[in-house]
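for the recovery benchmark. tokens below, seq after
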């Protein structure tokens, strides 16, 4: 029976050496890999939900309204003079709030002015 004991302690020693590595991998998964996958999925869903008429911004800083979509190429109008740009779907940073919305001034500011 004594022959089995050193083998068991060797196994435990080996397990204790790899335990921190396993814990580190699990922590990296939950803190880095999983959140990045969630962001990538949300970004992909946002890009696939773009429709004609949506206001978007590109990674290059252009803001415009989608005029047409063909496969992975979008045509956007970037200003009032109707400048049109062709961009790839992957170059979209996000959807913008429509330009027709207005922001009301806080009511506290109105009271201070009186």
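predicted aa per position
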């Amino acid at each position: 029976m004594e022959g089995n004991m050193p083998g068991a302690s060797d196994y435990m020693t080996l397990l204790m050496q790899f335990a921190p590595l396993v814990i580190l991998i699990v922590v990296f998964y939950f803190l880095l890999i999983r959140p990045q996958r969630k962001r990538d999925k949300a970004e992909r869903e946002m890009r696939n939900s773009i429709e004609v008429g949506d206001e978007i911004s590109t990674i290059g800083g252009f803001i415009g309204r989608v005029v047409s979509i063909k496969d992975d190429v979008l045509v956007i109008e970037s200003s009032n003079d109707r400048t049109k740009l062709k961009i790839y779907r992957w170059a979209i940073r996000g959807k913008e709030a429509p330009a027709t919305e207005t922001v009301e001034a806080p009511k506290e500011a109105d009271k201070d002015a009186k």
